Amino acid sequence: MFCCFLTLCCAQVSWHKVKTSKVSFCQEVLGRHFFMSVCMVWSETILQCTPSVFVLGGGGWAPERTDRLRWLQVDLRERVEVTTVATQGRFGSPDWVTSYMLLYSDTGRAWKQFRQEDNIGTFPGNTNSDGTVHHKLSHSIRTRFLRFLPVDWSPGGWMGLRVEVYGCAYKSDVADFNGRSSLLYRFNQKSTSTVKDVISLRFKSQRADGVLVHGEGQRGDYITLELHKGRLSLHINLDDAKMHPSSGHVSVFLGSLLDDQHWHSVLIERFNKQINFTVDRLTKHVRTGGLDDSLEVDYELSFGGIPLPGKPGTFLRKNFHGCMENLYYNGVNIIDLAKRRKPQIYSVGNVTFTCSEPQLVSATFLSSSSSFLSLPLDAATETLSVTFQFQTWNREGMLLSAWLRRESERLLLLLVHGQLRLTHHRSALQSSDIVIGQALSDGQWHTVSISMGGFQVSLSVDDKPPSTMQLKDIAQPGRSLVIGGCPSVLTNQGCRNPTMAYQGCMRSVIINNQPINFYLVQQGLLGNYSKLQFDICGIRDRCLPNYCEHDGECSQSWNTFFCDCSGTGYTGATCHNSIFEPSCEAHRLTGSASGFFSIDPDGSGPLKSTVVYCNITGETSVWTVVNHNSTEMVRVQGSSLQKPHVMKFNYSASLEQLRTLVSKSEQCQQEVVYLCRKSRLFNTWDGTPLSWWLDRAGERRTYWGGFLPGVQQCACSLDENCIDMNHFCNCDADRSSWENDTGVLSYKEHLPVTEILIGDTNRSGSEAIYRVGSLHCYGDRFLWNAASFYQESSYLHFPTLQAELSVDISLYFKTTAPSGVFLEHLGTKDFIRVELSAPSVVTFTFDVGNGPVVLTVKSHVPLNDKQWHYVRAERNVKEASLQVDQLPLRFLEAPSEGHTHLQLNSQLFIGGTASRQRGFLGCIRSLNINGMTLDLEERAKMTPGVSSGCPGHCSSQNSLCHNRGKCIEKSSGYVCDCTHSAYGGPNCKKEVSVSFESGSSVTYTFQEPFSVMRNHSRQSSAIFAQSSNSRESIAFSFLTTQTPAMLLTVNTYHQQYMAIILAHNGSLQIWYRLNRDKEPDIFTPMSLNLANGELHRVQIHREGRDMYIDKDTNLKYSLSTDKELITIRSLTLGRAGVDEEVLQAGSRGFIGCLSSVQFNHLAPLKAAILNRGSSLVNVLGNLVESNCGELADKSSSRSLSDHADTGSRGKKLTNAAQSDSAVIGGLIAAVVLITLCALGVMTRFLYRHRHERTRQMASVKEKDHQPRPELRYRAELDLHSAMRDSRKEYFI
């Protein structure tokens, strides 16, 4: 076997310019200074080495086709710094390597794979035999051995390789700590106090825990750098511990898997309170608290441990076991002083100055389906003992399988949910288990021991005592055992993987007290294996850096990572997308009424959501109200400029959130009520103001009204009605009577008011009363921000996006053109593009360096129909997705290995491309990228071929269609499509209400997945079974006097349910049973009786574990799990049987009125009325369409929070059969009916007379009164697009 080796040592290059310049000069050809050899390896000993004929320009290397081990290894004779590698194919042949991996090692053992930026583990190679391909390493490495490992090669030939290595010499001072030693650097004086510290070192550790640096002072200052479970932690305290116990303490954690026996670099920089902590090119910036800026350390600084005073060799914590090199403290070379035995250094224990290398050899099990290691057992052995260490991220996997001598008897060791389970199978039906350990899939090394002898089997993990299992018969080992998964050749013998095969690292395998030599296994001299890498542990921490946004919690398996977004307010694969609406205007468009809501003004941007009050006062009017800590009237006396009255206002939102909210609003205002008596604002001899307020930037403002920021003026001067025309404020008249200078501040760039200062109430009889109101903002100026493109060569351009790791793009468009580019952004090689590629096709294309990725959504109807259509495209490091209108979401997972950063450097083009080809003709509005809405209208004003706004009835923010209704342009007006709205009527504003009698119910059956998939020829016209992705949005109104009552129930095919009921006492209860093995979660938002004959509105939104009741109560609850409702089966309104817990409410059903029911984007109540004949709708009892919800809403509607006031509002509905008023009402209704009939006859006569004139005037009508689109769907329920939140879709 020919083995050519190449090893890289991971060098840490600081991002400082001095280090970068050094790398640029470190480009010597190392082959000219160091002897390179290629060796033929048959065992652990090198038997034969050949000269370095495989460098550039030589003949080249090619392995035999029968060789199992194929690599080229270079020995540089000593550690050097490597900055560049170059490759060629084999001279004069069709042999070359098209891609390869680069490994490095100090000793020729314990290899590590070099990874470029984005964790790319392979290098592109050659495309012919003579061309030279250079790769400058993203960071230099210090190493002796390099290994080139071919991954792919010439398709018409074989592997062929010539290499060259560039870099420079590397010198270092090394110290070896054996776990019981340390170096003490003693100061020249009793203590030292510093405001600036720099500590740098490189280390490689043989275990996961140990103290690297420690220093402390008598007053409580300390600094400690410690390795804990393979991570570095830095602890610093700068304050007096007795006076300020915790104010100056800070802890920083960085790095992972740092106990891999490879070099890692550390840099600690502190200046006063600012700390920069860098580990392997990853930096965290933190700032300490407290009062002091200096670090006071007494006597000495310890490296390698914390020894007890007066007890040499005794340490407070586990000390460091490994090597350090180039250890510097504030410019002092600590190891150099120790080597020269300088008096400043005191050595504790045995510290040597050469790095000892461990003899541990690891193996990596690469595949979760086909990796295995089969080893023989001695047939004469009556007992079995197995010990090994493993390291993995996977929670599941088969670690070991051993056949015993008795037929069908087997010993099986599994990793199950991060625990070890040892199972003894006596037969197919008889088995016994041992389960031990917790969280063993944490990426740490764990030691496992199995012992079998006589009538018992024992299992232990790490340092825990063993657990024993008693056997009925004596068990004896068979002839072999398998580590990892089952070989395919043994499946016929009963060896099958009950879970995944083991995927991870393993070392120190000892069977019956005999260590297993992995080198013999690798060379085929011992056992058998598949999909294994030897002498390397390929584990990676995919949560470092953490790609989960918005404080999402990262977890991982061997191949990928996952983000837990619970409680963050965000969703998606990387917690990128906000679950909240961006504004109160958006809440109004969804049909919400006034109340407290969580809004996220910057969407997927960095700012969190905030709670505001949405005052929805009319059809098109909505105000956003943000409160602060002091909205009451405040009386001020005794204040002066020397001792002023100061009030600071703390808002329910941060200043950054307020700045975003104000900038996105059409207008904002804040009322300042100011009453005064002998209290001036500005009337001083030198013009010095006596009172003022601070804006959001902290700037002093002296105007007290209006939208134009003036100097020292009040509202009365703007209105020209001040009581004394010599002054600009009423208070400056300095009268003893009460005067008023109340004003409304409306200059957006200064709002809100953050502080007010009153300084002239210290004279006799002088006082002031003021109140600063809440911040009120109106509208959303970007929701209808639009531009019209009427030249194909025109476009809008914006600055370069910052979208390396994630980008989401959303927009609305309407056009009559068959194609056009909405958006294009280019880099040197990377790009991103969203376009209408065909009349019914939207395409999202991008390239991050792995080749172009194309996602396409095709509509069954043309999209160039001059109607508004919605497009949303997203790309992150986990996946990409494309949504068009309410069509099924298309998404594609990103490769686990590949480039992740999207490198863009050009301008962002909107409505066209840089080449001025394939431009878009039509309108684009509400273009939002990563939470930032682009101002298309402003940019269009200065761009030829583009105009601001968009013509048409449906291009206005006047919201012609309400409650999720969609506006559709017509030649002579518009029509509202209310298909996906819970409301009806011409403008989707009419309440859709149904009266339920005793025993009445409506059930919607979602088709099962198999029945949906069977018929591909039919268009999707049924409610389809689907997954909710842990997200439900529910809204409805109800009116009843009965308890208990079942309002709404959702069932799944997996015995899950969600139910909303009224309990015996009339309180609202929400039940979630997402795990059938556990008790349901039960929530009671209000304990008051809601069965009081009044209309109540309920709005519920669940995202993962978090459930929000967004109506006026603004309640939030946490579920016990974030599981989704998997494959919804049915939704029931009224009587239903779910579980025995809610059976009583279900059996009683619901008697009363249900109105405007919305489930996600489904309107089930309206769908039931329109689809009475559908096989998917099952109606029991008497179901009567009525206007009970609308009538009750006008007289007695209440939100959940209104119950703080228990007084009656309006009349309660009573049973008509028991009320005299009902009889009287019936008589009145009969009279009215007769009158209406007479009027109808007269109207018909007049209609015939003026029929022709009416036809002539039809063209001037504002609206097109064609039949409403939702009436077309009476034949079947067309809910294919109603569930737009789901990614798991089934089609008919």
Can you offer a commentary on this structure?
It is a single chain. With 1292 residues, the protein is mainly β. 9% of the residues lie in helices and 40% in strands. The strands form 17 sheets. Strands 47, 48, 49, 50, 52, 55, 56, 58 and 59 form a nine-stranded antiparallel β-sheet that branches. Strands 11, 13, 18, 19, 20, 24, 25 and 27 form an eight-stranded antiparallel β-sheet that branches. Strands 28, 30, 35, 36, 37, 39, 40 and 42 form an eight-stranded antiparallel β-sheet that branches. Strand 22 and strand 23 form a beta hairpin. The protein is globular. Belongs to the neurexin family. The chain crosses the membrane at residues 1222-1247. Residues 61-168 form the F5/8 type C domain. Residues 1193-1208 have a biased composition (Basic and acidic residues). Residues 575-628 form the Fibrinogen C-terminal domain.
